[in-house]
Write a structure and sequence with these properties.
The structure holds two protein chains of two kinds. In chain A, strand 9, helix 11 and strand 10 (319-321) form a beta-alpha-beta unit. Chain A is 34% helix and 19% strand. In chain A, the strands form three sheets. Chain A has a ten-stranded mixed beta sheet, with helices on both faces. By secondary structure, chain A is of the alpha/beta class. The longest helix of chain A is centred in the first third of the chain and has 16 residues, at 74-89. Chain A contains 13 helices and 14 strands. By secondary structure, chain B is of the alpha/beta class. Chain B folds into two domains: 5-215, Peroxisomal Thiolase, Chain A, domain 1; 224-352, 3-Layer(aba) Sandwich (Peroxisomal Thiolase, Chain A, domain 1), CATH 3.40.47.10. A ten-stranded mixed beta sheet of chain B has the order 3-2-4-5-1-6-10-9-7-8, sandwiched between helices. In chain B, strand 7 (260-263), helix 9 (273-280) and strand 8 (287-290) form a beta-alpha-beta unit. In chain B, helix 2 packs across helix 5 (119-128) and helix 8 packs across helix 9. The two termini of chain B are 17 Å apart. Classes of the chains: A alpha/beta, B alpha/beta. At the A-B interface, helix 4, helix 6, strand 4, helix 7 and helix 8 of A face helix 3, helix 4, helix 5, strand 3 and helix 6 of B.
């Protein structure tokens, strides 16, 4: 088995908690974060359910101690909160003691501010500092500047697999000795743009989402940020660091089927899982648990399920669940949110349930884990898929 | 470190650069502060039915990818990595405006589907049926270089791979204009050829695409070797200079080994001192070349520098229009590229003849 790259810190903010321990408590007490929209002015307020973080931008500005004339979008502020927690968790006080980089995944970037001010820009100078903040790279640099990281900083935008790809790149760069320490993850805030975008695709549920259920109606959008600290073996040994787990396998493949829909045989997902297992040096039966992408759209759950049956065998698929019914689909952040949950699963030897499941899908025999389950866990496979055919798989080990 | 060769290259820009035999013999004069790419005949590369829905980014990207593939002789890449600073702005803008003007009603999915930053990477994969690794970087002026860093790392891990790397950015009607409001683009139109002597803030904005096929082995079609590449998120002018020195040091290359330096001067009086400082210090004795007075600036404009480097090696000559000092190199074997935007997203790259 590949030893993998050490994870020494994690941080998260989501609709079920403002930090790691709050998220764990919500997962353990099976208390989800799906609600109606409170903080965004949209005509779809009463049509859909979302995983919204019940903090206003003013709350977040205060929490981060930002200048009132800052140009942080909500996406950037959520990112800064989660990344900061990850650094504290890894007990990093001098960020530039080692060659340290930052990689964030985002799909909306500063869209939440753009859609608020776009029509005012020509007339009023007041909010023009946010024009630049629209761009995804700017969101990332708002966070990296906040953390004091000035060297390698990058942004990945592969829709809903962005954060998974950020974790993958960080692990690869550390393994190759290109850098000593990398903060990796993703952040996305709710926006009218994505609410309407997914709305036009008719894949938003008006109820709490039901991953892998035969009668699933679509996804709940969510917002979140989550980051991990990855460190080289040298740092880990020298500083005797506590290790939360390791990124042992990774892969990225393209479904090359349709710009947004997944293929019915789950080819991209199959290829990603297969290669990630190979890189980890694991056989499919050595996976203890799968944290599925499981968005609860008819298309994703079918495609992913078929891919799992192809990899593991229909009757040999490991215990699996989607945690999207807790948080909603947090788009670019989903891969790192679920990485944090996977690390918590490894630490607590607990599998968090797939909520709201009632009826087995007709197409295969797969049934997700619907209750909190105690189980010795050593290896977890986590999937993230996105528009553009992007399929990514990560494998975490103890 | 693994070797990294450019085994195929294509560029679309505001100058006629798609004809492989030509090297800026003909210059198009641009007189506005926002101008579009010089379009090749996209119909030669894209079927009419597919083209109808394509935004400019997708058209430029798919076409440049196709030329680069042909140029390299590789039929199917083993990875597709794209970089874009602003993504598919045209479709994003249209979708956003519909939301705002029509109060979130009467929307259709096509614009949303094509609005994501990875649309071009996805479309190139779809067109080729390429199921391999596919990634999109969005890091302002370092977007293209971020893609190259990934590709270089991949060639170290899996040297047998052929990796298609591309940079794409497009002009959009209203959101590009917003950059005039915040001072990124010059308020008044100018004769772009005189950009480098401008005494005002901001730059001029355009669009384009560069695609390259990278591999770890030199082939019959190799244009250049990428010795190394580095991006730096934030640096002062003095720090940037130190980064460049350290970069060359690590490669065992002295300043006098650099035959020419390709710089990203964009006529922004508030930020061109990053380049001027280097022109007056490290590279005062080196042949200095600039290009944004020909193609404008945009996040992946720096990818044009790689195309220039390849052309210089191939033709063994430099068009006068690029030269900004009186030094002429004795030979063109080693070329250094440096770019930044608003003091952020610096990139350093070293190309060598192969």
């Amino acid at each position: 088995m590949n030893k993998g790259v050490a994870i020494t810190g994690m941080g998260i903010i989501s609709s079920i908690g403002n930090n790691v321990e709050e998220n764990l408590n919500a997962l353990k007490s099976v208390s989800h974060g799906i609600s109606r929209i409170d903080l965004i002015e949209t005509r779809h307020k009463d049509d859909i359910m979302v995983g919204e973080i019940k903090k206003t931008n003013e709350d977040l500005i205060k929490e981060l101690g930002l200048d009132p004339l800052n140009s942080f979008s909500r996406t950037a502020m959520l990112g800064a909160i989660a990344a900061k927690e990850a650094l504290v968790d890894a007990q990093i006080s001098d960020i530039n003691e080692y060659r340290t980089g930052f990689i964030s995944g985002t799909s909306v970037g500063g869209m939440d501010t753009t859609e608020k001010f776009y029509l005012q820009y020509p007339e009023s100078e007041e909010n023009r500092r946010f024009i630049k903040a629209q761009h995804a790279g700017y969101t990332t640099q708002s966070v990296s500047n906040y953390l004091g990281i000035n060297g390698y900083v990058s942004t990945i935008s592969t829709a809903c697999s962005s954060a998974a790809n950020a974790i993958m790149l960080g692990a690869r760069m550390i393994k190759a000795g290109k850098i000593d320490r990398m903060i990796v993850g993703g952040t996305d805030a709710l926006s009218k743009f994505t609410i309407n975008g997914f709305g036009t695709l008719m894949i938003l549920s008006d109820e709490e989402c039901t991953p892998f259920d035969d009668n699933r109606k679509g996804l709940n959008l969510g917002e979140a940020a989550a980051f991990l600290v990855l460190e080289s073996e040298e740092i880990v040994e020298k500083e005797n660091k506590k290790i939360l787990g390791r990124v042992a396998g990774w892969a990225n493949a393209n479904d090359a089927y349709h710009q947004t829909a997944s293929s019915s045989n789950g080819e991209g997902a199959y290829l990603a899982m297969k290669k990630a297992l190979k890189i980890a040096g694991l056989e499919p039966q050595e996976i203890d648990y799968v944290n599925a992408h499981g968005t609860a759209t008819p298309n994703n759950d079918l495609s992913e399920g078929v891919a799992m049956t192809r990899i593991f065998g229909e009757d040999k698929t490991p215990v699996f669940s989607s945690t999207k019914a807790f948080t909603g689909h947090t788009l670019a952040a989903a891969g790192s949110v679920e990485a944090v949950y996977s690390l918590l699963s490894l630490r607590e030897n607990l599998i968090f349930p797939n909520l709201n499941f009632k009826t087995k899908m007709q197409e295969f025999a797969l049934v997700p884990q619907t209750e909190l389950l105690s189980k010795e866990l050593n290896t977890i496979l986590s999937n993230s898929f996105g528009f553009g055919g992007n399929c990514s798989t990560l494998i975490f080990t103890k | 470190m693994g070797e990294c060769y450019i085994n195929g290259i294509a560029n679309i820009s505001a100058q006629p650069t798609t004809d492989a035999d030509r090297f800026l013999e003909e210059i198009i004069s641009h007189k506005t502060s926002i101008f579009k790419a010089h379009d090749p005949n996209y119909k030669e590369f894209i079927k009419p039915a597919a083209m109808r829905r394509m935004s400019k980014s997708v058209k430029m990207g798919v076409t440049a990818a196709s030329i680069a593939l042909n140029n390299s002789g590789v039929e199917m890449p083993d990875a597709i990595i794209t970089g874009t600073g602003m993504g598919c702005k045209q479709d994003s803008e249209k979708f956003l405006e519909k939301i705002l003007y029509d109060d979130e009603q009467f929307l259709t999915p096509t614009l949303f589907i094509q609005s994501t930053h990875n649309t071009v990477g996805g479309q190139v994969a779809l067109g080729l049926g390429c199921k391999a690794y596919n990634l999109t970087y969005v890091q302002g002026a370092a977007s293209f270089e971020s893609s190259l860093i990934d590709a270089q790392l991949m060639l170290l891990e899996e040297p047998e791979k052929n990796i298609l790397v591309g940079g794409i950015d497009e002009v959009a009607k209203n959101s590009t204009l917003l950059h005039k409001l915040d001072g990124q683009i010059k308020e008044d139109d100018i004769d772009v050829i005189n950009l480098l002597n401008s005494k005002t803030g901001g730059t001029v904005h355009s669009e384009g695409a560069t695609f390259m096929m990278l591999g770890s082995k030199k082939t019959d079609t190799s244009h250049a070797k990428i010795v190394d590449i580095e991006t730096i998120s934030k640096a002062s002018s003095e720090e940037a200079e130190k980064h460049i020195e350290a970069f060359l040091d690590r490669k065992g290359i002295s300043i006098k080994d650099v035959d020419a330096v390709i710089l990203g001067n964009n006529g922004d009086i508030d930020y061109d001192h990053y380049y001027r400082n280097l022109q007056d210090s490290l590279f005062s004795e080196t042949e200095q070349l600039c290009y944004k007075h020909l193609i404008g600036d945009y996040p992946v404009a720096s990818s044009f520098g790689f195309w220039l480097g390849c052309k210089i090696f191939e033709k063994n000559t430099v068009p006068d229009i690029l030269k900004v000092n009186s030094t002429t190199a004795k030979k063109y074997d080693t070329v250094l590229l440096y770019n930044q935007y608003l003091g952020k997203n610096h990139s350093i790259a070293l190309l060598q003849r192969c």
